[in-house]
Write a structure and sequence with these properties.
about 650 residues, alpha+beta, Rossmann fold, 2',3'-cyclic nucleotide 3'-phosphodiesterase fold, 6-stranded antiparallel beta sheet, 5-stranded parallel beta sheet, globular, tRNA_ligase_1, RNA ligase (ATP) activity
Length: about 650
């Protein structure tokens, strides 16, 4: 019912249902365990859903990040009635209808609270790498911030210590990441909850059968956070916030900058301070520059937030890593605030959210600074080195991963325009081993190309306008999560010649009529249903890299003749051997060692396995039927994203 209502109303949510492999031992002909995760993609969905619940009390409550166990099993009417009675749901005659309608569906909701799951388990993974002692210090400090009672601290500490042993044992030889926590935390918490009623109460499971009133009593009335302040008394953590209801006027707002020196954050903060009307909601705006704070910056932010709890704080300091982001989350939680990251826009690279030309612009700007309060300007002897170190803080994340994590943590983000999209491509530079020599060369190159570096930057007035508009939109509750931009080549997955399916089917039918071996092979294969599209793959991003697609760009959307020379088939595969022809006299070469068109695969066999057909043939495990004379089929060259 929840799924149907949300789809009908076009709610920003996804319902992902898959086999529950943690219960694989329960799998039988009469029992199928599934798991459904409800992923709300925009926070506005929660407010819209609450309005629907007021209209329809029968709707289940919707909470952030919970999942549902679905156990489908066969049961006769008598067994179904017994299960319903045991669940205490059969309170009157009307409820007995469940025996007929819902007998074969058992539903169980899981409710580990979002704050605990996010802050104590997921965000604690990086600290856990330093050892159990560091992790214990981390979660105890977090619970102190939340004013958790001593009794609940003891309960949570016991559970978290066991979690630390569990996850470290499972990932002894692997790296821990924030993407690990949900798939591993789920089975751990499920087993932990089963061990005692006290554990189940701590985890917050709703039980095997659910009723809306029972869930509401569990989640709202009994304070499932385990001794924490109730949701009505404490501000949601920053990842929850992006709508008008959540960014309320009586809450604070922190605007912070996951950037690099030279990204213009201080100048932008000054312009926002002076902007007429601020962010458009009447809250006062003030700024705190990191270079002018001599002690711990984020502790100063906490003090400023408490002195001005209903204001907008511009955190004028680079926040380049997860440690800084966790501190910001803690500030939000302890001072009743939400946070919006503002990031310089960039295509990035495969392993860094910022491109090299963006870094060059940042260094160029820094080398024009005079009297910088942080002593990072043209008079600094190692400015290039410092910025390169900042650049490496972001190493290991693509642009998409970088933006996705910020949105996951803080609910929204603002892109600060940086480089003109129509600018020239990247240029090769000089890199010297000697850092003193490198600094001089770097300055000579950048200052010598001042006109170019100035020309590719977006005008600063436009930057101010764009950032203000995006901030105001978020405050008004009109935010929509941006999609990460990719370069044209980076977005391409493979290049291929798209071939007409009727001609491929016609060729196979002709071969089946002329050759008994082909006829016997194809007679029970339902090839017509299998081939929905046909293409001759020439290069794949995974095997050949993205740069290879540049060589094919002149062929895009052009007609290409393809010569089909043979059919190869085995027990699980069938493919046509083919060779691409010419476009306006230029040969179209395949990067694949054996160019082919896959026409059939067996159950659970990936199409890419057709690449092994020549090896299977040499091993006597495949059959080759030559097509003589070869058949020519004309297709269209395309890039596939």
């Amino acid at each position: 019912m929840v799924s149907l209502m949300m789809k009908k109303k076009a709610f920003p949510a996804a319902f992902k249902c898959y086999y529950n492999f943690h219960k694989i031992n329960d799998l039988s002909s009469g029992n199928l365990p599934f798991k459904m995760v409800i992923h709300v993609q925009e926070d506005s969905g929660f407010q819209r859903y609450q309005k629907e619940m007021r209209k329809d009390p029968a709707l289940w409550p919707l909470y952030r990040g919970f999942f549902i166990d679905l156990d489908l099993f066969k049961a006769n009417e008598e067994e179904a009635s017994e299960m319903v009675q045991c669940s205490n749901m059969g309170k009157n005659e009307e409820d007995s209808s469940l025996a007929d309608e819902d007998a074969n569906l058992m539903v169980k909701l899981k409710f580990l609270p979002y704050k605990l799951r996010t802050f104590l388990i997921r965000n604690g993974l990086s600290t856990l790498r330093k050892g159990p002692s560091a992790y214990s210090t981390y979660y105890l400090r977090q619970m102190k911030i939340w004013n958790t009672s001593a009794a609940k601290q003891q309960e949570l500490s016991k559970m978290l210590d066991e979690w630390a042993v569990y996850i470290c044992t499972h990932y002894r030889k692997k790296s821990l990441s924030s993407w690990t926590y949900l798939s591993e935390a789920e089975p751990f918490l499920e087993q932990y909850a089963k061990r005692s009623p006290q554990n189940q109460a701590l985890i917050g499971s709703a039980g095997n059968f659910v009723e809306v009133e029972d869930i509401m009593a569990t989640v709202e009335g009994q304070d499932v956070d385990g001794g924490l302040k109730s949701e009505k008394d404490i501000a949601p953590s920053s990842p929850n916030i992006s709508t008008k209801d959540m960014v309320a006027e009586n809450d604070g707002l922190i605007v912070f900058f996951p950037g690099i020196p030279g990204c213009a954050k201080s100048a932008l903060c000054m312009e926002i301070l002076n902007a007429s009307g601020g962010l458009g909601d009447g809250r006062p705006v003030h700024s705190l520059m990191g270079d002018r704070v001599k002690c711990k910056y984020w502790q100063n932010v906490v003090g400023e937030r408490r002195r001005k709890p209903h204001s907008v704080m511009l955190a004028d300091k680079n926040a380049p890593n997860e440690e800084a982001w966790r501190q910001i989350e803690n500030v939000c939680l302890s001072t009743n605030a939400s946070a919006i990251p503002v990031i310089p826009d960039s295509e990035g690279t495969e392993i860094n959210p910022f491109s090299v030309d963006a870094l060059a612009v940042f260094i160029f700007r820094v080398l024009h600074r005079a009297n910088h309060p942080g002593n990072l300007g043209k008079s600094s002897p190692n400015a290039g080195y410092v910025l390169l170190m900042f650049y490496h803080f972001y190493e290991g994340k693509s642009r998409q991963e970088f933006e996705s994590e910020l949105i996951e943590r803080f609910g929204s983000l603002v892109r600060m325009p940086l480089l003109k999209p129509e600018r020239l491509g990247s240029r090769k530079g000089t890199y010297a081993k000697d850092w003193v020599k490198w600094e001089k060369q770097l300055r000579d190159i950048l200052l010598g190309n001042a006109d170019y570096l100035n020309s590719i930057q977006v005008p600063f007035e436009f930057v101010v306008k764009e950032v203000l508009e995006q901030l105001r939109a978020i405050v008004r509750g009109e935010y929509a999560a941006p999609t990460s931009k990719k370069g044209k080549l980076e977005s391409i997955v493979f290049a291929a010649v798209n071939l007409p399916v009727p001609e491929i089917l016609g060729l196979l039918n002709d071969l089946a009529q002329k050759n008994p071996k082909v006829g016997d092979f194809l007679k029970d294969k339902s090839i017509d249903n299998y081939i929905q599209n046909a293409h001759l793959t020439l290069a794949h991003k995974r095997s050949h890299g993205v740069n290879v697609f540049a060589d094919y760009s002149s062929f895009l959307h052009q007609k290409v003749s393809v010569e089909v020379t043979a059919l190869l088939f085995s027990e699980k595969l069938a493919a046509l051997e083919a060779e691409p022809g010419f476009v306006e006299g230029e040969k179209v070469n395949s990067k694949n060692h054996w160019p082919h068109v896959t026409v059939w695969t067996g159950e659970r066999v990936a199409a890419r396995e057709a690449n092994t057909m020549p090896q299977l043939l040499s091993q006597g495990k495949a059959t080759r039927i030559d097509i003589n004379p070869p058949v020519t089929i004309t297709g269209t060259f395309e890039f596939y994203i």
